[in-house]
Amino acid sequence: MKHLFLILFGSLTFLSSFMLIADEEEVEEVVVVGSQIKGAKITRNIMETSPLAMYKYKELFGIHDNMTDIEWEQHIRDRADTIYHPVGTCKMGKDELSVVDSTLKIRGLNGIRIADASIMPLLVSGNTNAPTIMIGEKCADMIKQEYS
């Protein structure tokens, strides 16, 4: 799978096919744009097909025919936002790359646990609210058990 990275000032280091480290002091901005532009064009083409075209009232937000990739990129930068709750930023496990252990304690720090959606390895198919509440409840139970 190819990834298009727009790198403005800085450097990237690939540790594996799954992990990317950006030098915080050097990198001002790293944006994956190729797939978003391609997806926007595909979506627009789908909306132009005969089953859906009859529902088109007008283009919104400055979208127009024959937009260049530069125009699409600017549009995506101006309009992009997450519509889900990001997860998986604090790996749980026993290896060196894990942020927390199975009791949600942060490796290398005492007295701090992470009890939110960041420990989920993957985004759940539904809303993250209930699983996140469960993680908090489980963490509370572990803390009570440890100190009782």
In short:
It contains four helices and four strands, in the order E-E-E-E-H-H-H-H. With 148 residues, the protein is of the alpha+beta class.
How would you characterize the overall build of this protein?
This protein has 148 residues and is an alpha+beta fold. 32% of the residues lie in helices and 9% in strands. The strands form 2 sheets. A two-stranded antiparallel sheet has the order 1-4. A two-stranded antiparallel ribbon has the order 2-3. The longest helix is centred in the C-terminal third of the chain and has 19 residues, at 129-147. The chain starts with a strand and ends with a helix. Mean pLDDT is 79; it is low at 1-11 and 23-31.
Q: What's the topology here?
A:
Elements: E1 5-8, E2 12-14, E3 20-22, E4 29-32, H1 34-47, H2 50-53, H3 69-79, H4 129-147
Antiparallel strand pairs: 1-4, 2-3
Features:
single chain; 148 residues; alpha+beta; two-stranded antiparallel ribbon; two-stranded antiparallel sheet; 4 helices; 32% helix; elongated; disordered N terminus
